[in-house]
Design the sequence.
């Protein structure tokens, strides 16, 4: 019975069907299924599958966004019960994302946010033109593992450096890792501003983020 | 007859404009600049929470005051670029961060010497009526990167220039530099040498910086080119028709802000519309749909009688390869057939991120073909063929005819050595990449920077010093 339910949950995410996902979440609560099981064995399996398919070029961005929306609608229904039971969803790690001050290019950053959350990271997206102070404050508030700064303009890349310096000064680094990306970002620039890593596309960014949290976990 | 092409029917253009007028009223257009908001409010426009609701009548009035034709000039004041009608010009793509190194085939951050190479090659090629500030130089302070690249272009070119500023305060220095080049601000206004690209942020948002640039350019009488970049499905409706509508709304709003600041100031209906890649989130500049968007957006501008601009002749490939050639040549033809006044993008790889001098000389051949195509089939002589047959009879000796000698240069566009039409000989044949590299070197060997009077160079230096100080960076030690 639950196996079929979990299977349906997974499929509701893959199909990007928020109403179906929500009613399956509701059914789980009514049947007394542990909400954490519903997520881990049901819904999250769908989002992981979708993320993999996207990586292979078999699924597309609008599909992936629909999957994410379905996931959200399920989690929203399960969350109160999880809080009641004091259980928490395990995530791969927490990442604070934003574009450097003065930069409104956010497509790359949004893509990274979508892919990372599809693969189990908890993403706190601060949006565009984010000051170093806001990066630091958010990283502290949510106890982040990673901070990601996107910059596409040669004029705003200095903002990446400013965020890293602010993280250093706040004492959050080295525990919090800073990663960067954007059209003009090179390995040389990443080294120069002592970033913990850089990536040129979303799939590389996922690998990088996974590596960094795994290393931190091992240390 | 000039051959042309038309994607949109007059009915569809009407619908596009009707919806665009509707959009700039509701939801309206976000405007970031307090100075521009004030201007709008003075004109009776309702602005709530930074969103302006533009009435159709005011927009139509702005279209009416915007010039339908104007020229860009060379340093010597010759009017060589005509914005208006179906005249077509090309300039290299602007503002790349990287350059393709022909030795290593890697893209690396561009430096001054790369910009100089691009400018020298574009200066020598008649296909490029204008220069562009093609790359940002990573060896100059980024705070004044926009000013510095304009300075480098001015040093090495006498052609008109398509440029743009990176910040609201940065614009003044660039205008001053151009005024110095023209002799005075009045001369610059009377015979502008440069045009500035100014971008709204999709959807329907004129940022503080963009809106302010429009205002300052209008007041200085320096032409502005609105480069609206809806990305179909990403930052704009997924349908091509929907994206063209958003483009029209953004440009109509821009023209209104601009004309309110100074009625009659030159402004261009331009853009870099593209589709949105659903696998990578990228902006496929070489896609045929991107070319279709550029064509359709220009058609709407033409319908209103506006001068037009588009972003074509670029590719998403990382190399100067078959994809680069196919995508760039195709869009050069389509842009020319549409009669877009200024077509930017030649030389560009990697969705506008990387430049290549070698690609520029290959694109120049595609552009020459496009010019040939739009010249169409011309009629020479009293008869089409009869008179020539009267001379040759059935001998077939056309090569001997004086008409052949007199007309072949007009009938055929003669390519440079970049295009291979040779018969296979004892030398092993070469590919276009190899020939393009040779052509670049050949041009660079001959090309010399125009000799600028030393007092002009001193004026340039003074402006650069002043702007360095303003930006808080150390002064540049310039070598002329
Ligand atoms: C689309 C676009 C725009 C759109 C942006 C819309 C939006 N909402 O984002 C609009 C039209 C608004 C725009 C505006 C401008 N743009 Co623009 N833009 C582009 C363009 C064509 C594509 C960018 C893009 O979205 N790529 C697709 C995404 C998926 O890729 P990505 O951003 O690189 O992100 C990937 C990686 O870099 C990496 N990554 C990115 N961030 C991060 C962060 C982390 C932590 C990690 C690990 C990885 C990572 O992973 C991402 C996913 O694969 C680029 C050219 C290019 N090819 O880069 C120019 C480009 C960046 N823009 C440029 C310019 C000049 C401007 C303007 C200044 C133009 C003007 N005069 O007004 C304004 C700037 C406004 C501002 N203040 O920010 C120049 C930059 C030049 C320079 N040397 O700095 C470029 C190179 C184009 C050009 N040649 O002119 N632009």
Sequence:
């Amino acid at each position: 019975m639950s196996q079929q339910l979990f299977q349906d949950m997974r499929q509701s995410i893959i199909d990007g069907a928020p109403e179906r996902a929500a009613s399956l979440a509701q059914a789980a609560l009514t049947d007394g299924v542990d909400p954490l099981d519903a997520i881990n064995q049901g819904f999250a399996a769908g989002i992981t599958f979708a993320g993999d398919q996207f990586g292979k070029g078999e699924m597309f961005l609008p599909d992936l966004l629909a999957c994410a929306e379905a996931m959200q609608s399920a989690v929203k229904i399960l969350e109160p019960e999880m809080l009641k039971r004091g259980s928490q969803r395990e995530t791969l790690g927490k990442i604070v994302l934003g574009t450097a001050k003065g930069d409104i290019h956010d497509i790359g950053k949004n893509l990274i946010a979508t892919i990372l959350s599809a693969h189990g990271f908890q993403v706190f997206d601060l949006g565009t033109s984010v000051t170093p102070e806001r990066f630091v404050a958010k990283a502290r508030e949510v106890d982040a593992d990673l901070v990601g700064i996107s910059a596409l303009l040669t004029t705003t890349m200095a903002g990446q450096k400013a965020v890293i310096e602010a993280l250093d000064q706040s004492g959050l680094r080295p525990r919090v890792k800073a990663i960067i990306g954007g059209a003009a970002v090179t390995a040389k620039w990443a080294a120069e501003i002592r970033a913990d890593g850089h990536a040129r596309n979303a799939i590389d960014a996922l690998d990088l983020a996974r590596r960094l949290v795994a290393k931190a976990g091992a240390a | 007859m000039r051959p042309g092409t038309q994607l949109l029917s007059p009915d569809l253009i009407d619908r596009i404009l009707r919806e665009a007028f509707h959009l700039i009223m509701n939801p309206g257009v976000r405007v970031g600049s307090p100075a521009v908001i004030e201007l709008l409010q003075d004109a009776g426009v309702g602005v709530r929470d930074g969103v302006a609701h533009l009435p159709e009548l005011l927009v139509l009035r702005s279209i009416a005051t915007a010039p339908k034709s104007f020229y860009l000039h060379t340093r010597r004041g010759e009017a060589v670029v005509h914005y208006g009608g179906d005249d077509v010009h090309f300039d290299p793509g602007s503002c790349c961060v990287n350059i393709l190194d022909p030795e290593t085939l890697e893209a690396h951050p561009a430096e001054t010497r790369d910009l100089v190479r691009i400018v020298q090659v574009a200066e020598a090629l008649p296909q490029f009526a204008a220069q562009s500030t093609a790359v940002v130089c990573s060896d100059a302070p980024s705070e004044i990167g926009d000013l510095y690249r304009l300075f480098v272009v001015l040093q090495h070119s006498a052609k008109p220039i398509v440029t743009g500023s990176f910040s609201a305060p940065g614009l003044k220095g660039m205008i001053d530099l151009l005024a110095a080049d023209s002799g005075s601000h009045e001369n610059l206004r009377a015979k502008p040498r440069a045009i500035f690209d100014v971008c709204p942020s999709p959807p329907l948002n004129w940022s503080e910086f963009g809106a302010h640039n429009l205002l300052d350019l209008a007041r200085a009488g320096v032409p502005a080119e609105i480069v609206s970049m809806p990305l179909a499905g990403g930052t704009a409706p997924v349908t091509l028709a929907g994206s063209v509508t958003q483009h029209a709304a953004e440009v109509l709003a821009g023209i209104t802000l601009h004309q309110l600041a100074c009625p009659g100031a030159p402004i261009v209906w331009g853009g870099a519309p593209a589709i949105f890649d659903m696998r990578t989130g990228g902006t496929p500049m070489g896609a045929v749909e991107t070319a279709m968007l550029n064509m359709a957006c220009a058609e709407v501008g033409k319908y209103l009688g506006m001068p037009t601009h588009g972003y074509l002749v670029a590719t998403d490939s990382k190399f100067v390869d078959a994809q680069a050639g196919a995508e760039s040549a195709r869009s050069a033809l389509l842009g020319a057939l549409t009669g877009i006044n200024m077509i930017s993008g030649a030389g560009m790889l990697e969705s506008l991120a990387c430049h290549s001098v070698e690609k520029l000389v290959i694109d120049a051949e595609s552009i020459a073909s496009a010019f040939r195509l739009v010249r169409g089939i011309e009629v020479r002589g009293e008869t089409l063929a009869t008179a020539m047959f009267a001379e040759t009879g059935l001998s077939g000796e056309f090569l001997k005819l004086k008409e052949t000698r007199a007309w072949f240069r007009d009938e055929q566009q003669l390519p440079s050595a970049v295009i291979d039409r040779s018969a296979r000989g004892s030398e092993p044949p070469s590919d276009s990449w190899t020939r393009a590299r040779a052509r670049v070197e050949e041009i660079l060997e001959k090309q010399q920077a125009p000799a600028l009077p030393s007092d002009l160079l001193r004026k340039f230096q003074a402006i650069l010093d002043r702007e360095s100080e303003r930006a808080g960076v150390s002064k540049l030690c310039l070598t002329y």
